[in-house]
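*** Query protein ***
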Amino acid sequence: VGIFSSITTRKGMKKAISKHQVLVDGKVCLSGKYINGGETIELHPLIVQNRPQLELDLDVLYEDEQLALVYKPAGLVVSGNKMRTLENALGHNLSMSAAVDALPYPEPIHRLDHPTSGVLLIGKTRHIVTALNKLFENKEISKTYIAITIGDYTQAKGTIDTPLKGKSAVTHYEVIATVASEKFTKLNLVRLSPETGRRHQLRIHMLELGHPILGDKEYALADKTLYGKGLFLHAQQLEFKHPDTQEILSITASTPSKFLRIFPNV
Protein backbone atom coordinates (compact mmCIF):
# COMPACT_ATOMS: atom_id res chain seq x y z
CA VAL A 1 0.00 0.00 0.00
CA GLY A 2 1.27 3.48 -0.88
CA ILE A 3 3.39 2.66 -3.92
CA PHE A 4 0.58 3.73 -6.29
CA SER A 5 -1.02 7.17 -5.80
CA SER A 6 -4.39 5.90 -7.06
CA ILE A 7 -4.66 3.16 -4.38
CA THR A 8 -4.63 4.39 -0.80
CA THR A 9 -5.99 1.44 1.22
CA ARG A 10 -5.21 -2.24 1.78
CA LYS A 11 -8.70 -3.09 0.57
CA GLY A 12 -8.10 -1.21 -2.68
CA MET A 13 -4.75 -2.93 -3.19
CA LYS A 14 -6.20 -6.40 -2.58
CA LYS A 15 -9.00 -5.61 -5.03
CA ALA A 16 -6.51 -4.56 -7.72
CA ILE A 17 -4.49 -7.77 -7.17
CA SER A 18 -7.60 -9.96 -7.33
CA LYS A 19 -8.53 -8.34 -10.64
CA HIS A 20 -5.06 -9.14 -12.04
CA GLN A 21 -4.13 -5.46 -12.38
CA VAL A 22 -0.82 -5.83 -10.51
CA LEU A 23 2.22 -7.27 -12.29
CA VAL A 24 5.53 -8.25 -10.68
CA ASP A 25 8.38 -8.37 -13.20
CA GLY A 26 5.82 -8.46 -15.99
CA LYS A 27 3.76 -11.34 -14.59
CA VAL A 28 0.34 -11.34 -12.92
CA CYS A 29 0.75 -12.10 -9.22
CA LEU A 30 -1.40 -13.04 -6.25
CA SER A 31 -1.30 -11.45 -2.81
CA GLY A 32 0.63 -14.42 -1.39
CA LYS A 33 3.69 -13.79 -3.58
CA TYR A 34 6.81 -13.01 -1.53
CA ILE A 35 8.65 -9.81 -2.46
CA ASN A 36 12.43 -9.92 -2.02
CA GLY A 37 13.15 -6.34 -3.09
CA GLY A 38 14.29 -4.96 -6.43
CA GLU A 39 11.32 -6.30 -8.39
CA THR A 40 9.42 -4.10 -10.86
CA ILE A 41 5.82 -3.73 -9.71
CA GLU A 42 3.33 -2.29 -12.18
CA LEU A 43 -0.32 -1.33 -11.99
CA HIS A 44 -2.31 -1.83 -15.15
CA PRO A 45 -5.58 0.09 -15.45
CA LEU A 46 -8.69 -2.04 -15.49
CA ILE A 47 -10.36 -2.29 -18.87
CA VAL A 48 -13.72 -0.68 -18.26
CA GLN A 49 -16.74 -1.80 -20.22
CA ASN A 50 -18.62 1.00 -21.93
CA ARG A 51 -21.45 2.23 -19.74
CA PRO A 52 -24.70 3.30 -21.39
CA GLN A 53 -24.88 7.08 -21.70
CA LEU A 54 -28.25 8.69 -21.03
CA GLU A 55 -28.79 12.17 -22.48
CA LEU A 56 -30.82 13.49 -19.59
CA ASP A 57 -30.12 17.00 -18.31
CA LEU A 58 -29.51 17.20 -14.56
CA ASP A 59 -29.18 20.26 -12.37
CA VAL A 60 -25.51 20.35 -11.29
CA LEU A 61 -25.37 22.13 -7.92
CA TYR A 62 -21.57 22.04 -7.49
CA GLU A 63 -18.63 20.56 -9.39
CA ASP A 64 -14.83 20.53 -9.18
CA GLU A 65 -12.10 18.14 -10.34
CA GLN A 66 -12.77 15.69 -7.50
CA LEU A 67 -16.49 15.62 -6.79
CA ALA A 68 -19.91 16.97 -7.71
CA LEU A 69 -23.35 17.39 -6.21
CA VAL A 70 -26.39 17.03 -8.45
CA TYR A 71 -30.15 17.26 -8.07
CA LYS A 72 -31.87 13.88 -8.33
CA PRO A 73 -35.44 14.26 -9.59
CA ALA A 74 -38.21 12.22 -7.97
CA GLY A 75 -39.02 9.09 -9.99
CA LEU A 76 -35.46 8.52 -11.21
CA VAL A 77 -33.44 5.61 -9.79
CA VAL A 78 -29.81 6.31 -8.88
CA SER A 79 -28.38 3.13 -10.43
CA GLY A 80 -29.37 -0.31 -11.66
CA ASN A 81 -29.69 -2.47 -14.75
CA LYS A 82 -32.05 -0.16 -16.61
CA MET A 83 -30.97 2.48 -19.11
CA ARG A 84 -32.78 5.35 -17.41
CA THR A 85 -30.71 5.87 -14.25
CA LEU A 86 -29.06 8.94 -12.80
CA GLU A 87 -25.70 7.15 -12.92
CA ASN A 88 -25.98 6.71 -16.70
CA ALA A 89 -26.75 10.44 -17.08
CA LEU A 90 -23.69 11.67 -15.13
CA GLY A 91 -21.33 11.51 -18.12
CA HIS A 92 -23.70 13.79 -20.05
CA ASN A 93 -23.72 16.39 -17.26
CA LEU A 94 -20.28 16.31 -15.61
CA SER A 95 -16.80 16.92 -17.00
CA MET A 96 -14.22 14.16 -16.63
CA SER A 97 -11.59 14.90 -13.99
CA ALA A 98 -8.04 15.64 -15.13
CA ALA A 99 -6.63 14.09 -11.93
CA VAL A 100 -4.22 11.15 -12.20
CA ASP A 101 -6.70 8.81 -10.49
CA ALA A 102 -9.76 10.00 -12.39
CA LEU A 103 -12.60 7.51 -12.65
CA PRO A 104 -13.72 6.61 -16.18
CA TYR A 105 -17.29 7.33 -15.02
CA PRO A 106 -18.47 9.48 -12.09
CA GLU A 107 -19.74 7.38 -9.18
CA PRO A 108 -22.67 8.09 -6.80
CA ILE A 109 -21.46 7.94 -3.19
CA HIS A 110 -24.86 7.22 -1.62
CA ARG A 111 -28.44 6.51 -2.65
CA LEU A 112 -31.83 8.19 -2.58
CA ASP A 113 -35.04 6.20 -2.94
CA HIS A 114 -36.70 6.17 -6.37
CA PRO A 115 -39.53 8.54 -5.25
CA THR A 116 -37.25 10.88 -3.26
CA SER A 117 -35.84 14.07 -4.79
CA GLY A 118 -32.86 16.12 -3.73
CA VAL A 119 -29.11 16.57 -3.53
CA LEU A 120 -26.84 13.61 -4.32
CA LEU A 121 -23.07 13.39 -3.83
CA ILE A 122 -20.87 12.14 -6.69
CA GLY A 123 -17.19 11.12 -6.72
CA LYS A 124 -14.99 11.73 -9.79
CA THR A 125 -11.65 10.28 -8.61
CA ARG A 126 -10.66 7.07 -6.83
CA HIS A 127 -9.18 8.72 -3.75
CA ILE A 128 -12.14 11.05 -3.25
CA VAL A 129 -14.60 8.13 -3.39
CA THR A 130 -12.64 6.45 -0.59
CA ALA A 131 -12.51 9.68 1.42
CA LEU A 132 -16.22 10.46 1.01
CA ASN A 133 -17.25 6.93 1.97
CA LYS A 134 -15.16 7.34 5.12
CA LEU A 135 -16.93 10.64 5.91
CA PHE A 136 -20.28 8.83 5.68
CA GLU A 137 -19.02 5.98 7.87
CA ASN A 138 -17.78 8.46 10.48
CA LYS A 139 -21.04 10.45 10.33
CA GLU A 140 -19.15 13.56 9.21
CA ILE A 141 -21.66 14.43 6.48
CA SER A 142 -24.70 16.34 7.73
CA LYS A 143 -27.91 15.39 5.89
CA THR A 144 -31.10 17.47 6.05
CA TYR A 145 -34.42 16.41 4.54
CA ILE A 146 -37.82 18.01 4.46
CA ALA A 147 -41.05 16.04 4.38
CA ILE A 148 -44.78 16.64 4.59
CA THR A 149 -46.32 14.34 7.17
CA ILE A 150 -49.84 13.50 8.31
CA GLY A 151 -51.53 14.11 11.67
CA ASP A 152 -51.40 16.21 14.82
CA TYR A 153 -48.09 16.13 16.71
CA THR A 154 -48.00 16.13 20.50
CA GLN A 155 -44.31 17.12 20.43
CA ALA A 156 -43.02 19.57 17.83
CA LYS A 157 -39.50 18.13 17.93
CA GLY A 158 -37.78 14.99 19.09
CA THR A 159 -35.60 12.00 18.28
CA ILE A 160 -36.54 8.53 17.04
CA ASP A 161 -34.01 5.88 18.07
CA THR A 162 -35.44 2.62 16.77
CA PRO A 163 -33.09 0.00 15.25
CA LEU A 164 -33.87 -1.26 11.75
CA LYS A 165 -33.05 -4.87 10.92
CA GLY A 166 -30.89 -5.09 14.03
CA LYS A 167 -28.82 -1.99 13.20
CA SER A 168 -28.84 1.37 14.97
CA ALA A 169 -31.06 3.99 13.31
CA VAL A 170 -31.47 7.54 14.66
CA THR A 171 -33.60 10.35 13.22
CA HIS A 172 -34.11 13.84 14.62
CA TYR A 173 -37.30 15.66 13.59
CA GLU A 174 -38.73 19.16 13.96
CA VAL A 175 -42.13 20.46 12.83
CA ILE A 176 -41.60 23.72 10.93
CA ALA A 177 -45.18 24.57 9.90
CA THR A 178 -48.69 23.07 10.02
CA VAL A 179 -51.87 23.54 7.97
CA ALA A 180 -55.38 22.12 8.43
CA SER A 181 -56.47 19.31 6.10
CA GLU A 182 -59.97 17.93 5.59
CA LYS A 183 -58.74 14.45 4.72
CA PHE A 184 -55.67 14.20 7.00
CA THR A 185 -56.71 16.55 9.88
CA LYS A 186 -53.34 18.29 9.66
CA LEU A 187 -50.40 18.36 7.27
CA ASN A 188 -46.98 19.21 8.66
CA LEU A 189 -43.78 20.46 7.08
CA VAL A 190 -41.08 18.60 8.98
CA ARG A 191 -37.29 18.91 8.98
CA LEU A 192 -35.57 15.52 9.29
CA SER A 193 -31.92 15.04 10.26
CA PRO A 194 -30.86 11.38 10.16
CA GLU A 195 -27.68 10.33 11.97
CA THR A 196 -27.67 6.99 10.16
CA GLY A 197 -28.57 5.98 6.62
CA ARG A 198 -30.61 2.79 6.80
CA ARG A 199 -32.84 1.80 3.89
CA HIS A 200 -36.19 3.63 4.08
CA GLN A 201 -35.19 4.92 7.54
CA LEU A 202 -37.07 8.22 7.42
CA ARG A 203 -40.23 6.67 6.00
CA ILE A 204 -40.28 3.87 8.59
CA HIS A 205 -39.48 6.17 11.51
CA MET A 206 -42.22 8.63 10.57
CA LEU A 207 -44.76 5.80 10.38
CA GLU A 208 -43.62 4.47 13.78
CA LEU A 209 -44.15 7.96 15.18
CA GLY A 210 -47.71 7.83 13.85
CA HIS A 211 -47.09 10.53 11.24
CA PRO A 212 -46.34 8.85 7.89
CA ILE A 213 -45.00 10.89 4.99
CA LEU A 214 -47.67 12.14 2.61
CA GLY A 215 -47.84 10.08 -0.58
CA ASP A 216 -46.08 7.04 0.91
CA LYS A 217 -47.99 3.94 -0.25
CA GLU A 218 -45.64 1.43 1.39
CA TYR A 219 -45.41 2.92 4.90
CA ALA A 220 -48.90 4.31 5.44
CA LEU A 221 -51.85 4.31 7.84
CA ALA A 222 -55.16 2.75 6.73
CA ASP A 223 -57.26 5.21 4.67
CA LYS A 224 -54.53 7.86 5.00
CA THR A 225 -52.82 7.48 1.64
CA LEU A 226 -52.54 10.11 -1.07
CA TYR A 227 -52.27 8.69 -4.59
CA GLY A 228 -50.96 10.28 -7.76
CA LYS A 229 -48.74 13.00 -6.27
CA GLY A 230 -45.64 10.99 -5.38
CA LEU A 231 -43.74 10.90 -2.11
CA PHE A 232 -43.37 14.19 -0.24
CA LEU A 233 -39.77 13.58 0.86
CA HIS A 234 -36.90 15.76 -0.32
CA ALA A 235 -33.14 15.64 0.43
CA GLN A 236 -32.70 19.36 0.97
CA GLN A 237 -29.07 19.79 1.99
CA LEU A 238 -25.68 18.11 2.41
CA GLU A 239 -22.92 19.73 4.43
CA PHE A 240 -19.37 18.39 4.85
CA LYS A 241 -15.69 19.29 4.74
CA HIS A 242 -14.16 18.78 1.30
CA PRO A 243 -11.50 16.04 1.79
CA ASP A 244 -8.98 17.82 -0.45
CA THR A 245 -9.53 21.56 0.01
CA GLN A 246 -10.86 21.35 3.61
CA GLU A 247 -13.53 23.86 2.56
CA ILE A 248 -16.94 23.48 4.20
CA LEU A 249 -19.45 22.71 1.45
CA SER A 250 -23.10 23.36 2.23
CA ILE A 251 -25.16 22.53 -0.85
CA THR A 252 -28.93 23.01 -0.97
CA ALA A 253 -31.40 21.61 -3.50
CA SER A 254 -34.38 23.79 -4.41
CA THR A 255 -37.76 22.82 -2.92
CA PRO A 256 -40.07 20.89 -5.29
CA SER A 257 -43.15 22.77 -6.49
CA LYS A 258 -45.55 20.22 -4.97
CA PHE A 259 -44.26 21.22 -1.50
CA LEU A 260 -44.78 24.90 -2.30
CA ARG A 261 -48.41 24.36 -3.25
CA ILE A 262 -49.08 23.29 0.36
CA PHE A 263 -46.46 25.42 2.13
CA PRO A 264 -45.76 28.45 -0.13
CA ASN A 265 -43.24 30.02 2.24
CA VAL A 266 -40.75 27.12 2.43
